[in-house]
Amino acid sequence: MRISGVFLTLLIFSAVSSFFSCASLGKKPLPPGARRAPVQETTVGPEREASNALIEQGKSKLEAGHYDKAFDFFQESVNVDPTNGVGFYYLAYVKYKTGEYQEVANFLEKAEALLSSSKEWQERIDLLKGELNR
User: Fold this and answer.
1) What is the mean pLDDT of the chain?
2) pLDDT winner (highest mean) among 21-30, 40-49, 78-87
3) In sequence order, what are the residues at sequence separation of 6 or more whose Cβ sits closer than 8 angstroms to the Cβ of residue 55?
4) What SS3 state is found at 104?
5) Second label for 129, Cα 20 to 30 Å away, from 5, 25, 33, 61?
6) Between the CA of residue 23 and those of 16, 17, 19, 30, 89, what are the distances in Å?
7) The pLDDT of residue 37
8) 3-19: b or e for each residue (b if 16 or more CB lie within 10 Å)?
């Protein structure tokens, strides 16, 4: 009889601690057999991967001074993924480097809207805006 009392105590303790561990994480306990949906916040889709690859190719052309070719890669990057603000930033940068200042502001506006959560990109955008306003 003593063993079953200890077993019952352990069972109650286990159930209570499971409940509180879920509660302490801000999660409600799941019904039996249910699973939580996987978190996909850091998942990058194929369009973004392709867009980022095009941006890398464009950056290589940009570093080599081939602005027209760089622009084509950056343009294609935003065609593939219109939500990739980095592509719009580099479109603005190429237009700035080629002296086509009237187009810089439009690209920067799109980049700023899409990259608003990134302090690093906001700083880059602000620097380019500063150069544009000189």
Assistant:
1) 80
2) 78-87
3) 73, 74, 77, 84, 86, 87, 90
4) helix
5) 61
6) 11, 10, 6, 11, 43
7) 42
8) eeeeeeeeeeeeeeeee
In whole angstroms, give the CA distance from residue 31 to residue 35. Answer: 9
123 DSSP 8-state letter: H
| CB 118, CB 111: distance < 8 Å | no
Query: What is the torsional sign of CA 127, 129, 130, 132?
Result: positive
Burial class (CB in 10 A: 0-12, 13-18, 19+), 75: middle
Secondary structure of residue 28 in the 3-state scheme: coil
Per-residue pLDDT band for 12 (boundaries 50, 70, 90) equals low
Distance of CA 53 to the CA centre of its chain: 15
Name the pTM for this structure.
Answer: 0.68
Question: Cα separation of 62 and 44, whole Å?
Answer: 25
